[in-house]
């Protein structure tokens, strides 16, 4: 009996700490050695662009921005103290991109996650990779407590564009032999296999955390995959997760954005816009409780919006934070509604949801390189979201139940 009481007391103490307001953390430790994941300098990341003068399509090579020692130190300062972790939690951090490359947001989140790992003394174990072999087997995925989708875009399990198309060079325009047609088809097929494994992983009890561009991905046609013929078991899973009706009538196979809870519709508020204002719709929710002093706050970042067609649904996810439309004007005075495909002003940005037996946390912040080290509150919230998604922190069913339109003044407007 005494042992049981001690365990309960310890659990309550740990839970109370998780949901306490963020406090000043210790200074940057001298022995902290940033991992290579914060310092990638050579890549296969390319964007295809059109020359304004000639109309020529060329490739622009991209490198992730290198986080400086000062920026890493500031991120360490902004990273909250990690509560007592019951057991080692293993995270698979995925950052491959097929579309736009967030060369600031990707290394910034890597840095924050490394700081969390350091402060947890390795109890939050981060495995950074862009090797899709991790997703080619459902059994392999189940080694991890949570998959983190770090600003992945497009068909993010396909090979990098530079590999597929055979471009190289220190800038652009140098063409070499890329994949053959058959190789591209096999590559595309593997993209769907890995996507389907990820969906199964979550539905069967896994966790997923998505940051920023994680909801700008994977609503691609299955022309080669023919999911209705080759993946009847996936359709059964979608039906059990109350997702099939949102997928079956779409031109594209939208299982991934439906699972995540959103599909990108534009970002009227760009990264250079002045600070925007945000509403904490559910201030008593464990993931946001006590972080901000008021029920609203300001920060500067690129702000996503999500289409109504599929994915984003207040009746299927618990919205925690949204943008205050009237208090967030654009610098140039334009109407934000002219720069999004969304039809109304309901711009939810942070949510939790269940998908089958799995747990999902999504936060739309994370475009700018300085989002984490300038906003320790975001760091605290993301840590809590990760602890929930990994299964470390338990959240009551009532706090996962969707709130519908109750808390948003712009719903339907």
TrEMBL record:
Keyword Signal: yes
Domain ThuA-like: 256-389
Keywords: Signal
Xref: Pfam families: ThuA
UniProt entry tagged with the keyword Acetylation: no
Signal peptide segment: 1-20
Protein name per UniProt: ThuA domain-containing protein
Organism: Intestinicryptomonas porci
């Amino acid at each position: 009996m005494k042992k049981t009481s001690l365990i309960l007391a310890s659990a309550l103490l740990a839970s109370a700490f998780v949901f306490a307001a963020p406090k000043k953390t210790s200074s940057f430790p001298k022995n902290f050695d940033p991992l290579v994941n914060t310092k990638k300098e050579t890549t296969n990341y390319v964007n295809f662009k059109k020359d304004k003068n000639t109309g020529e399509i060329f490739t622009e090579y991209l490198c992730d921005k290198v986080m400086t020692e000062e920026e890493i130190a500031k991120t360490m300062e902004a990273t909250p103290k990690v509560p007592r972790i019951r057991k080692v939690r293993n995270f698979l951090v995925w950052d491959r991109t097929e579309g736009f490359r967030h060369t600031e947001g990707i290394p910034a989140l890597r840095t924050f996650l490394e700081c969390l790992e350091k402060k947890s003394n390795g109890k939050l174990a981060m495995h950074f990779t862009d090797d899709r072999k991790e997703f080619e087997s459902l059994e392999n995925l189940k080694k991890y407590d949570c998959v983190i989708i770090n600003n992945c875009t497009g068909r993010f399990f396909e090979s990098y564009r530079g590999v597929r198309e055979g471009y190289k060079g220190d800038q652009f325009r140098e063409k070499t032999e890329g994949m053959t047609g058959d190789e591209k088809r096999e590559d595309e097929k593997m993209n769907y296999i890995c996507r389907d494994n990820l969906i199964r992983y979550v539905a069967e009890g896994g966790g997923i955390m998505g940051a920023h561009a994680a909801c700008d991905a994977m609503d691609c046609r299955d022309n080669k995959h023919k999911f209705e013929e080759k993946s009847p078991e996936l359709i059964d899973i979608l039906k059990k997760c109350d997702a099939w009706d949102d997928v079956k009538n779409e031109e594209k196979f939208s299982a991934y954005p439906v699972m995540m809870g959103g599909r990108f519709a534009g970002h009227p508020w760009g990264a250079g816009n002045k600070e925007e204002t945000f509403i904490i719709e559910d201030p008593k929710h464990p993931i946001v409780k006590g972080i901000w002093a008021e029920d609203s706050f300001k920060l500067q970042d690129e702000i996503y919006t999500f289409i109504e067609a599929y994915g984003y649904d207040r009746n299927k996810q618990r919205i925690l934070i949204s943008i205050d439309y009237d208090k967030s004007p654009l610098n140039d005075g334009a109407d934000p509604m002219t720069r999004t495909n969304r039809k109304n002003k309901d711009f939810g940005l942070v949510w939790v949801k269940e998908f089958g037996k799995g747990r999902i946390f999504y936060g739309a912040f994370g475009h700018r390189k300085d989002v984490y080290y300038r906003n320790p509150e975001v760091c605290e919230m993301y840590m809590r979201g990760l602890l929930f998604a990994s299964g470390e922190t338990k959240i009551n069913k009532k706090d996962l139940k969707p709130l519908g339109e109750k808390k948003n003044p712009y719903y339907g407007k």
